[in-house]
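ugh ok so i messed up the first submission bc i forgot one of the chains. this is the corrected input, ALL of the components this time, i swear. 243 residues overall. if the numbers dont match what u have on ur side tell me asap before i send this to the collaborators (the ones from the other lab, u know who)
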Amino acid sequence: MAVKVIIPTPLRAYAGKQESVELQAGTVGEALNALTTKFSELKKHLYADDGRLRSFVNVYVNDEDIRYLQKDQTRVREGDIISIVPSIAGGARI
Amino acid sequence: MSGAGLKIREELLRRIQAHGVETYPHECCGALLGRDGDGSREVVDLLPLENRRNDSPRNRFEVTPDDVRLAEKTAGGKHLELLGWYHSHPDAPARPSEFDREHAWPWYSYIIVSVQKREPRDTTSWRLRDDRSAYDSEAIESAAHSATP
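and heres the new structure output, hopefully the right one now
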């Protein structure tokens, strides 16, 4: 399936300065794997060292948060749009 | 210190500091809207946001993905970009914490205002390095009054 991944502005420098990337994938996990294989510099900003998505990185398929679907196993269909949206977190002390 | 500085009008800096005083002893947060290009970055508007971190708002803040999308939409509606974020450190230095570093992306500017006993103190700006190893300080430069949203 051809799907489009929207690249958030801060990460475009690591994705050939593109606003979006079209990929072939059957699931969200496959799409993100294809994306980070194509643009390896993206990986450390999306995934923690343990291979899981960073806690502040949220992924949507057509505006549906994949946490409430089947996470990275969520099936995608032709023309689906995958968005990567951060939550912004921080604070003064550990 | 990173190369290019962050331009921002004094009035906007004072609004960030006032937001930190208003929410003291809790952390405040908001979005920086402006223009970026040709090695120059200028904040021309702010979007104050609610700290969604209810369990420990004295030393944590959180902007939800919905609020991030609201900030992007607000910036786009004004033909601006979402350049980054501000937050306060109540009774703590205006330096990013390890927690800040783990929850950041490069490119964004992160302004931190230290609020000590309800008084705004240092205000600093930071950019995360490409390799995520550390933040670099970003000079805050006073912008001309002509820049408007």
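quick check: Chain B has a mean pLDDT of 93. that seems consistent at least. The helical segments of chain B are 10-23, 65-77, 98-102.
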